[in-house]
Amino acid sequence: MNTREPLPASTAFLAVQDELLQGLIAEVGITQVADIAPAPADARLALWQGGITTLAADAIVNAANAGMTGCWQPLHGCIDNAIHTFSGVQLRLECAELMAAQGHPEPTAHAKVTGAYNLPAQRVIHTVGPIAQGCPSDRHRRELAQCYTACLDAATAENLGSIAFCCISTGVFGFPRAEAAAIAVCAVRTWLDEHPEAHLRVIFNVFLDEDAAIYREFLGYSD
């Protein structure tokens, strides 16, 4: 999955691939957004810990790179790799076609919407976070907040009712986790306050226990 060029695949290949990927996801178990309890501090928000590729939100957010065609490092543990792997080869092809039409790398803090293919989500929203390398500047902080608002704008434009955010920029891009979470929650709550007509349910998806503890504090969960 990581090293295959973004080329069309045969109907026979896609049939086998799709059956395999959908079976693997179902085996892990699919989580519905309606089954996730709202956050004590704000009922519009929620926290969910698990693999984002098993979450049946209207949209899930991918922390992409500027090339936008996924992670090309075999077996790499990033969320970009996981989303592209379990979506199937169709996603890389769609992203490559978008980038060819655009003609330049994806800027930081924008959002692009694609299909989700074999994922239980309806859409994937791709955003490129700032590369902070452990020392975020004010510009990095603004860009990270803009990643969240751009994705919310994109979800609204698609008439979606729920969106699940990963922890943007906190992996190899090196944004400190606690500060990134504070920016994320603030940006999302501000956007929701400014767009009451959106009726958008926002899930903060975490995988690591460290991130879960950080978001539990910000969202008012008691231990």
What would you note in describing this structure?
This protein has 223 residues and is an alpha/beta fold. The chain contains six helices and eight strands; from the N terminus they run H-E-E-E-E-H-H-E-E-H-E-H-E-H. The strands form two sheets. The chain has a six-stranded mixed beta sheet, with helices on both faces. A two-stranded parallel sheet has the order 1-3. The longest helix has 20 residues. It is globular and about 50 Å long. The termini are far apart.
Catalogue the unreliable spans: none
Using only CA atoms, what is the Rg? 17 Å
- Oligomerization state: single chain
The largest sheet has its strands arranged as: 2-8-7-4-6-5
Beta-strand level of the residues, as a percent range?
Answer: 15-25%
| Element string (H = helix, E = strand) | HEEEEHHEEHEHEH
- Gross morphology is globular
Q: How many E strands?
A: 8
Overall mean pLDDT: 96
Briefly note the structural class of the backbone. alpha/beta
Biggest sheet architecture: 6 strands, mixed
DSSP helix fraction: 25-40%
> Termini distance?
40 Å
**How many distinct helices?**
6
